Prior knowledge:
It is a single chain. With 139 residues, the protein is mainly alpha-helical. The protein folds into two domains: 4-71, 434 Repressor (Amino-terminal Domain) (Orthogonal Bundle), CATH 1.10.260; 79-137, no CATH class. Helix content is 68%, strand content 0%. The chain has eight helices and no strands. Helix 2 crosses helix 3, helix 4 packs antiparallel against helix 5 (65-71) and helix 6 runs antiparallel to helix 7 (96-111).
Amino acid sequence: MLRPGFARAVRAILAALGENGKPMSLRQAARLSGLSAATVGELASGYPRTSQAISRFAEGLGQDPVPLLMLAGYKPPHSDCVLQQYAKTASESISPPVADILSQWAEAFSELSAHPQEELFLAGLERDIQLMRLLASQK
Length: 139
């Protein structure tokens, strides 16, 4: 299933790790991650394969796999601890009411399992992310 937010994140990683203004090639990312170039291409196109492939891609390129796993719709391993840590880190740089909401969100997300409405939930999150980025760009 196509995940546009996931595709943008993968392409951003490849762009950040590229040289001379060009993104890292799929073949180079494949060599570093131990995946095939075809699999890396699928990830960059927004088609997350398995949580293992996403983790191998991220870790092979020196990235944290948790944000990619979340964008792909997977519940990260040890998500209770990981999400609480993300919320705590975020709370150090944002207002207390927003930190409280993020903490509640992390708790609720850790309880989410393969639910029939998961796609609607993830689509809503992607819309929220786009809105936040738009608002932030208008400062």
